[in-house]
Design a protein that fits this description.
The structure is a single chain. This protein is an alpha+beta fold. The protein has 2 domains: 8-50; 59-185, Ctag/Cox11 (Pfam 04442), CATH 2.60.370.10. It has 3 helices and 9 strands, in the order ααβββββββββα. The protein has helices spanning 8-47, 59-64, 183-194, and strands spanning 73-82, 85-89, 93-96, 102-110, 116-125, 133-138, 144-146, 151-160, 170-179. The strands form 2 sheets. Strands 3-1-9-5-7 form a 5-stranded mixed beta sheet. It is elongated and about 90 Å long. The chain starts with 7 loop residues before the first helix and ends with a helix. Its main location: membrane.
């Protein structure tokens, strides 16, 4: 009635078959995780959420902008982190004239004893201000690699489009700085495991 357990040769075949299935599942999971980043970027572009500011502002556009000295806009700076570092603007706020080229500096310190890759994502309040906040240079345009315990000052060069609605008197520029990939930490852990 009861079937005997397979012999040693049968168990090896079953184990090899199970190992093959597990390897296929592991590869598929890795591929899915790897594909999430470009998928996320495409979804963000389609929905208009968390879009990095494009770098396609031309010099002609800058030279044609006029500084509106008749009004000032208060720009407030904010920093949030998702990771083991210190990240902050060097000033809390500043007043600027629309059309005036301005620079602010953010400081970041990697508090780990290993290299980390990170990315900053900007957000604006009120949200309508995002289309009037023109960045010429920004650390958010690309990933940043910070060495062990490295401190860095990163500039943002921007101007406010003079077409900003008159009722907007204050704009908050907020960055969230987060680790990308986690590869560096995994490499350190692997290196310590071999010691």
């Amino acid at each position: 009635m009861f079937q005997d357990e397979p012999g040693a040769g049968g168990r090896r075949k079953l184990n090899a078959k199970m190992l093959g299935k597990l390897l296929v599942i592991a590869v598929l999971m890795f591929g899915f995780g790897y594909a999430l980043v470009p998928i996320y970027k495409q979804i963000c572009e389609l929905t208009g959420v968390n879009i990095l500011t494009p770098k396609d502002i031309s010099v002609k556009e800058i030279s044609n902008s006029q500084i509106d000295r008749s009004r000032e806009v208060t720009i407030e700076f904010d920093a949030n982190t998702q990771g083991p570092w210190r990240f902050r603007p060097t000033v809390a706020s500043m007043k600027v004239h629309p059309g005036e080229m301005t620079q602010v500096v953010y400081e970041v310190v990697n508090k780990q004893a290993y290299k980390m890759d990170a990315q900053a994502i900007p957000s604006y309040a009120p949200q309508q201000a995002s289309s009037y906040f023109k960045k010429m240079e920004c650390f958010c345009f690309k990933q940043q690699t910070l060495g062990p315990n490295e401190a860095r000052q990163m500039p943002v060069v921007f101007y406010i489009d003079p077409a900003l609605p008159k009722d907007v008197k204050t704009i908050t520029l907020s960055y969230t700085f987060f680790e990308v990939g986690g590869k560096s930490q995994a490499a350190v852990a692997e290196g310590q495991g071999k010691s």
